[in-house]
Amino acid sequence: MRRGPPTIFVQERTYKRRRMADAARMLPILGVILFMIPLLWSDGETGPDSTRTAAVMIYLFVVWAALTGVAAVLSRRLGPEEDTPEDSATEEDAG
Amino acid sequence: MATLNVLVLVCLSYVALLFIVAFMADRAAKQGRARWLRSPVIYTLSLSIYCTAWTFYGAVGFAARSGLEFVTIYLGPSLVMIGWWWTLRKMVRVGRSQRITSIADLISSRFGKSNSLAVFVTVIAVIVLAPYIALQLQSVTLSFDTVASPDFIATKDASGQQATALWVAAGLAVFTILFGTRNVDANERHHGVVMAIAIEAVVKLIALLAVGVFVVWGLSGGVGATLDRIDASPIATWEVPGSRWVGLTLLSAAAFICLPRMFQVMVVESEHEDHLRMASWAFPAYLMAMSLFVVPIAVVGLDMLPADANPDLFVLTLPLMEGREGLAILSFLGGFSSATSMVIVAAIALSTMVSNHIVMPIWLRSTGGSAIISGDVRSVAMLARRLAIAVILFLGYLYLRLSGGGSALAAIGLISFVGAAQFLPALMGGLFWRGATRSGAMAGLGLGFVVWLYCLFLPSFGPSGILPQTVFENGLFGMSWLRPYALFGTEGMDPVMHAVLWSILLNAGSFILVSILSLPQPIERLQGAQFVNVFDHSSTPGGWSGGLAQSEDLMIMAQRIMGARDAQTLFAEEAQRQGLGGYLPEPSPDFLNRLERELSGSIGAAAAHAMISQIVGGATVSVQDLMAVADETAQIMEYSSRLEAKTDEQARTARQLREANEKLTQISVQKDAFLSQISHELRTPMTSIRSFSEILRDTDSLSGEERNKYASIIQEEATRLTRLLDDLLDLSVLENSQVVLNQQSGTLFDLLERAIAAADVTGKLRIHRKPEREKVMLNTDLDRLTQVFINLISNAGKYCESDTPELRIKAETRDGDLVVDFIDNGEGIPRNHQAVIFEKFARVGETKAGGAGLGLAICREVMGRLGGSISYVPGQAGAAFRVRVPMEAGQHVQAAQ
Q: Which chain A residues in 9-68 lie under 8 Å from chain B, judged by CB atoms?
């Protein structure tokens, strides 16, 4: 039943779900980038002008909370699989 | 003031509470009325065993020493959970569809169910986990000592600490044995344990948050004031080295996936794949909550506590110093539950691995493999697990003792993390790369493990611990590029990052290289395809399709594994449920699934599945089985194709026989017809001869003319008889090869002229010829050939039923033979007679021109003698005979001219 040529046009719901899966894949990459940004702030100096731990801490926790929130929204959208063929297709996309 | 006794009492009552929770959860699960036990919330909370005493105590110490760097340990797992769609979803699906019982099981299953690989992974896991267990022991020991000491600063008395550590280790071992191996008969999923660690997750979170709230709002005076304190603290500036920030994040992410206990709760205990969905955001939120107050606690601790206070214990010492005993007890319990939950799950995971991959194979082999004995495998498994737990905790204690026990908790934990991360290449390669092979996994794991041992584990025992000082300074065997902290000359690196870099690099590199170069076995390739393309293959593990299983065999096996009494009870129950008497139920799929679940608790899911499938057959077969089947099939196919060939041959023979039979029947009919004909043929002249000779004898008054007439009739009839007998004799001579050929030379033209003249058909038959084509020199028995021609021409004269009978004689050379066709314009020979006209006595129908039916038979014999042939050519205008004479000695006259 899953065999056969992949369809180009799928139902809008299916299409949306695939894009949600894409977003779920991209989210950790975004997270890595955001978590690495503080490294760009440290200029190696240890003087009073250098970046404050408190600021970085607040930044990290805000990003952390935001990622968690987005992940929660995405996971809700990626409910239990109802249409398997679509899923297998996205898996092929993932390689 | 809390005394040691109070603490012990608190611990014991807490443990008792856990026992009660676990017991109730198990009972609820058994009665199948505990849907909430399988909720995603419980799953998410059970993941919190990632947060061990390292998190509870060590994170604050880490933060006090290195600032925000501690948070990398929680960022990595958060990213992995958020990225569940990439990795964890696949891992859980594979785990469920392949009935994986541990990370060693997963890796060995992927690489061709190789037991040697499983043993290797198990051994590595046990060694890698020793520092981690030591960390838990150290933290519990320190917390005991701290609470018990008068000034709340942990005593630095090493011997006293070690005594406490030994007690703690022994206590934890007993607790884990009682708790973790209480019931081995459910399955690999431990509902009670999962429930208990979920409770512990809540306890440690509440404890840490409570201390945090107390510190921020109780001691510092609010958020703003706390931020000011951070700015004023020794860790006020953000100066984390980039390599450590990135490296530790990746390392913790890898360890989160690879640690055996994380694998246990994440994959093995997973009730439903869908639970990951909630955990994907809820677990990062949990980690965030756990990390939220770490920096404030560290800063306040650094500010308020004496300089010699151990920063790893700020969580405990701050409430104690402030006289908040209730909070201190809560904090202590939080630390205790962090340590115990980690030890329980890690020990269960490791002991399962040791039991399933090391002890059980050896035991099964030593007791004769599949020999049917009424032993109790379960008791062996239980004993193996209990011993494994004891050994694992003892190894942890040993590590603590040998390493001196003075290190920061985070530093010890990182050693284990790097060790566990060595599984990552094999694990990820196995899940995503079909080309990964067993040899590659072995090589990668081996090399990575050795590098980890040399660069991180052995040096962790101190400069003069296991590795002598000279090795640190000059490298192994005096080779400076082999210094443990500066491998290949990479000096000045952080030791942990140095070990991560080289071990993972060499591990992954050799894994990939050897995988590319080596050839996997068929079973590896099959498993590889099933793992990598798991979403195409299965949604859930396949059920049993029973019917083939022998209930009695199943019973024998179950008795052997579960013990006779339990097995009989189970079988009898099931039989009763099915409405049958006795002990043998029908092997229905439901029953087989239940039996497998029961067995898997004792010997591991994979082994149980294998054992049942061996008896049930069919449902799941190994590649070896498939290959054996394929071999047999190939043989059968070869055999059947040979049979087919034989059948064809027999069909051909049968057809030939049928034809021969038909011919024989026809010949027999012809013979009968001939006999009546020959008797008629013979009798007619004989009758004439007799009657005329009687007239001659008895009648005296015959005139000379009459006498003459009668005598000539007699003579004529006698000649006819002689001719007939001559023909018969001729044929018999020809058939018995007694004929002597008389080689002569002549042209076809002359031959035909003679034949036409002799056939005496002038006036009756018009003959068409092309004389120029007949100028062919022949060298053969011309008289015999002429005889054939005469026969054919006179036959045409006799049997051609046209009003104006014609005969065409066509001569040509073909393939070195002379071919002469005799075609008349009559009706030809009916199809059903064509096959027999050349037989002796064959006559087409009741012909009016009464021949004896020997002419064509003689012709055939003659042509056979001459090395040629005569055949009937169907489909011409009339009857057509083709005479083929070899021209070996013949010459074309025209060519000669």
A: 21, 24-25, 27-29, 31-32, 35-36, 38-39, 41-42, 44, 46, 50-57, 60-61, 64-65, 67-68
